[in-house]
DNA sequence: AAAAAAC
């Protein structure tokens, strides 16, 4: 099967060929003919399956005929986050380079006037997040009565984020006769309900990836102290000692924590950016762009970066916080080990996170071994006392997550004196000095990766659930007396860091 | 236990 069998126009085929793709992914193969036949499509597909091109390519073919009128876009694509919307626009720019197409991006955090001017000129493709889109319609600068094709992307995530009422409003503004493409990764009851009202006789296209992590990803958990400064210290150590680290995303559960960890790593000399929803849009875009280009090897992020964002070739994912919902673990870890490449996912696990880890192991159907090292329970033997774990369960239900929760304030722990904000404890908050450490298997990080047996070759795509191979568990240094680690380098001394992880002299301010 | 999205 090749792209030329799907009914796409010559121009689009040429654009696809120019990017080097030759074979459509399953979702593309199934969805594109239906889209071109102007059918409604219900696509059940995770990110990373080629879903975006599955609607972008046929839309480009459809849009070759006809022209846009002022303030009346011909097609509309709804995305849950600004970054995803921007990414879809990049797809139109890439594959639509050969045609005169007006593509507008309506997202928050950027100039309203520029967007309005663009709408006035007439757009073929409007890509939007719900808030800004409705803002434009309410001000009268935008008419949705000319929309021939509506795409609702990442619908289940929109549900999680409380966007469904907005989506329903938008659906009342577009013509009843439009074509609708609806994509979701899961089918909770609320999503099933809205597909029945939004879609007319939809063609169902399902390419559900298993609720599991890629077999090429080496996963491990590192026991961590429950205090945040202990975790930051452990993170620095893990970063220094990580094997084959090219670039990494460090996930935190809270935006505040993202900011703190980012600042802390910067202070300790790491070249690191940050990404979360409270940053202003230019900082978000800049951080993502620098990370993509490789200018920043490290990115501290909230779950805004967990799903959908196209960040190629991440070698490591760190869960600074264990996610509370197992699905989020799968999405985070899915940032590495893509397209059959190897990757490493390391989770810092406090005693409070044990329950979450059990739920994660149950969902992915494998136990996640503990890393060896002085934080491990059984460091000497390398045996993992708690495996194999019973791990057959596989329910994908996200029951109870349907309603957005608002107003949850962070609770401060009060039984102990607070650590001063922003890392004022360097003298006692420690990491091992370079000399004290046994310079373990820390290769220079740019060195090519050692060959790994091609484990993925004969694996079934679905439900690969063999336990992780203990021989691939990264060793986190050798056990050493806790005392020794008290003598950390000063925050200013970065001589022990791999050069590419170092902050450049004229460092771009992060968040 | 959170994050995300409009001004």
UniProtKB/TrEMBL annotation:
| Reaction equations catalysed | ATP + H2O = ADP + phosphate + H(+)
The Helicase C-terminal domain is annotated at 234-381
Coiled-coil segments: 228-255
Task: Please report the stretch or stretches of sequence annotated as the DEAD-box RNA helicase Q domain.
Answer: 1-29
What EC identifiers does the entry list? 3.6.4.13
Region (Disordered): which ranges?
374-511
Instruction: List the SMART domains hit by this protein, alphabetically.
Output: DEXDc, HELICc
One GO cellular component this record assigns the protein to is:
cytosol
Keywords of the record: ATP-binding, Coiled coil, Cytoplasm, Helicase, Hydrolase, Nucleotide-binding
Q: What is this protein called?
A: DEAD-box ATP-dependent RNA helicase RhpA
Q: Which organism is it from?
A: Bradyrhizobium amphicarpaeae
């Amino acid at each position: 099967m090749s792209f030329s069998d799907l009914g796409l126009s010559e121009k689009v085929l040429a654009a696809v060929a120019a990017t080097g793709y030759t074979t459509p992914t399953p979702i593309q193969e199934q969805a594109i003919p239906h889209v071109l036949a102007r059918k409604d499509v219900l696509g059940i597909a995770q990110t990373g399956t080629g879903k975006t091109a599955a609607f972008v390519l046929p839309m480009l073919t459809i849009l070759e005929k006809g022209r846009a009128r002022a303030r009346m876009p011909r097609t509309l694509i709804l995305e849950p986050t600004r970054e995803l919307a921007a990414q879809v626009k990049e797809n139109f720019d890439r594959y639509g380079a050969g045609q005169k197409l007006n593509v507008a991006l309506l997202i928050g955090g950027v100039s309203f006037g520029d967007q309005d001017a663009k709408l006035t000129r007439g757009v073929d493709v409007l890509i939007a997040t719900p808030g800004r889109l409705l803002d434009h319609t309410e001000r009268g600068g935008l008419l949705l009565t000319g929309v021939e094709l509506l795409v609702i992307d990442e619908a289940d995530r929109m549900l999680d984020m409380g966007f469904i009422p907005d989506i329903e409003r938008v659906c009342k503004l577009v013509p009843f006769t439009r074509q609708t493409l609806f994509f979701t990764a899961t089918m909770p009851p609320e999503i099933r309900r809205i597909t029945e009202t939004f879609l007319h006789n939809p063609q169902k296209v399902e390419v559900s990836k298993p609720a599991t992590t890629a077999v090429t990803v080496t996963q491990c958990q590192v026991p961590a102290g429950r205090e945040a400064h202990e975790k930051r210290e452990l993170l620095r150590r893990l970063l220094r000692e990580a094997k084959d680290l090219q670039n990494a995303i460090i996930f935190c559960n809270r935006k505040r924590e993202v900011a703190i960890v980012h600042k802390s790593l910067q202070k300790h000399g790491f070249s690191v950016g940050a990404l979360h929803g409270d940053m202003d849009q230019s900082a978000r875009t800049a951080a993502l762009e620098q990370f993509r280009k490789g200018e920043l090897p490290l990115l501290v992020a909230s779950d805004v970066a967990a799903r959908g964002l196209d960040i190629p070739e991440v070698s490591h994912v760190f869960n600074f916080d264990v996610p509370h919902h197992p699905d989020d673990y799968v999405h985070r870890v899915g940032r590495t080990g893509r397209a059959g490449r190897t990757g490493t996912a390391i989770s810092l696990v406090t005693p409070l996170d044990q329950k979450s880890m059990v739920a994660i192991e149950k969902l992915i159907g494998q136990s996640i071994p503990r890393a060896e090292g002085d934080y491990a329970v059984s460091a000497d033997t390398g045996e993992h006392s708690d495996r194999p774990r019973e791990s057959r369960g596989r329910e994908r239900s996200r029951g109870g997550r349907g309603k957005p929760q608002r107003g949850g304030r962070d609770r401060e722990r009060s039984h102990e004196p607070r650590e001063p904000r922003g890392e004022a404890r360097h003298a006692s908050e420690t990491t091992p000095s370079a000399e004290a450490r046994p310079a373990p298997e820390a290769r220079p990080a740019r060195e090519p990766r050692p060959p790994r047996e091609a484990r993925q070759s004969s694996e079934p795509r679905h439900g690969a659930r063999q336990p992780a191979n203990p021989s691939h568990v990264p060793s986190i240094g050798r056990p050493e007396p806790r005392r020794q680690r008290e003598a950390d380098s000063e925050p200013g001394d970065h001589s022990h860091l791999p050069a590419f992880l170092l902050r450049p002299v004229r460092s771009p301010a992060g968040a």
